[in-house]
Amino acid sequence: MKIKAAVLTEPGKPFAIEQVELDPPRAGEVLVKMAAVGVCHSDWHLVTGATKHPMPVVPGHEGAGIVEALGEGVDDLAVGDHIVLNWAPACGRCFYCVRDKPNLCETYTKAIWAGTMLDGTTRLRWSGQPLYSYCGLAALAERTVVPRQSCVKIRGDVKLEAAALVGCAVATGVGAAIHTAHVRPGDSVVVLGCGGVGLSIIQGARLAGAAKIMAVDTQWEKIWVARHFGADSVTMWTDDLLAIVRHHTDGRGADHVLEAIGAAGVQERALELARPGGTITLAGLAPMGTATNFPSALVTRQEKTIKGSYYGSVNPMRDFPMLIDLYRGGRLNLDDMITRRYSLEQVNEAYRDMVEGKLARGVIVL
Ligand SMILES: [Zn+2]
Ligand SMILES: [Zn+2]
Asked: What is the spatial distance between Cα 194 and Cα 199, in angstroms, rounded to a whole number?
């Protein structure tokens, strides 16, 4: 069938809205009518060239939609089911999956980063040539075909534009707080960066029972939004940051510092803000090649722990429905995270707003 999709032909170019050809789902695949797609920095890494990927590619990896057709053998989904897309599909059987680390599943990595389905072929074509699917999802399109493993079924009574955020920013942020950092009741938490991931970390820390949540950003607008999402105190990124954090933590530093930017300078700063014995969790997805210098003598002498958090250490099949339940129950605020809605045709405007820091989250509504 013919569909409309955002296409990136090479780094540095704007996204183009094109009519492209979408083949029907093959065995083990699902045709999804997209409802909403979040605007996320990882797509932008394709534009800057920081993420190397076969081109042309249809971006978009934070999405929700409705099942429209099932490929052969898919017997645990039905047409009409609401789903959230998972950009790290897991096999359930590999070394990592059986150790409850499906976010690190090693079975599908090659296909996903090749931008194809799991059998190594593409379902999208443009002018007769293969068109690749970012993360195997190609969510920035009216419809997409994805592996069954990339679909997480959710309840049918929540808004799909809110559910879409669960597929990347919210899973990454809430998961970083509760699964990676293991924030516990009474803990003090510093959150560096108050975009979609940072606001989700704040909400995760709140859910985990943190006693003090300090939010830091370079923009006043963002730290005031952070207060709305549960930060107890907000601070601009300044040279006095260490003194301010110590002031709020009896002079020691925070139990947890979570970084939601993916920038070396911010990560280095995170280490000094944590108390001796504290934990630094790096949740921002830094571009490949990013290197960060930590004073290792202090890591040893002060027993600080540095953790990486990929996709919030979540198990999407288990955690996406849980996060949606928390949203439905009023314990997780997704509605207010959406700063602005855009049409597919406004995709370049949406990413420009994101880069300029105007959005907690922008959502393309299809
Ligand atoms: Zn993302
Ligand atoms: Zn696996």
From this structure: 5
* 74 conformational bin, left if phi > 0, alpha if psi -120 to 50, beta if neither: beta
Confidence of residue 279 (pLDDT cuts 50, 70, 90): very high
How many degrees, rounded to 5, is the angle at CA 309 between CA 83 and CA 134?
A: 45
Global pTM exceeds 0.85: yes
**Catalytic site residue from 97, 105, 135, 168:** 168
Calculate what percentage of the chain has a pLDDT beyond 90.
94
Residue 94 a catalytic site member: no
Ligand nearest to the CA of 285: 1
Ligand sitting nearest the alpha carbon of 92: 2
| Catalytic option among 41, 53, 61, 256 | 61
Phi-psi region of 157 (alpha: psi -120 to 50; beta: other; left: phi over 0): alpha
Task: Report the DSSP beta bridge partners of residue 151.
Answer: 85
Per-residue pLDDT tens digits for 294-307 = 999 999 999 999 99
Q: How far is the CA of 126 from the centre of ligand 1 (A)?
A: 25
Please say if 61 is a catalytic residue. yes
Tell me whether strands 254-259 and 16-22 are parallel, antiparallel or unpaired.
Answer: unpaired
Rounded to the nearest whole angstrom, what is the distance from the C-alpha of residue 163 to the centroid of ligand 1? 14
Cβ atoms of 95 and 86 within 8 Å: the answer is no
CA 310 / ligand 2 centre spacing (Å)? 15
- The pLDDT score that the predictor gives to residue 159 is 97
Ligand nearest to the CA of 109: 2
Question: Separation of 41 CA from ligand 1 center, angstroms?
Answer: 6
Q: What is the structure's pLDDT at 221? A: 87
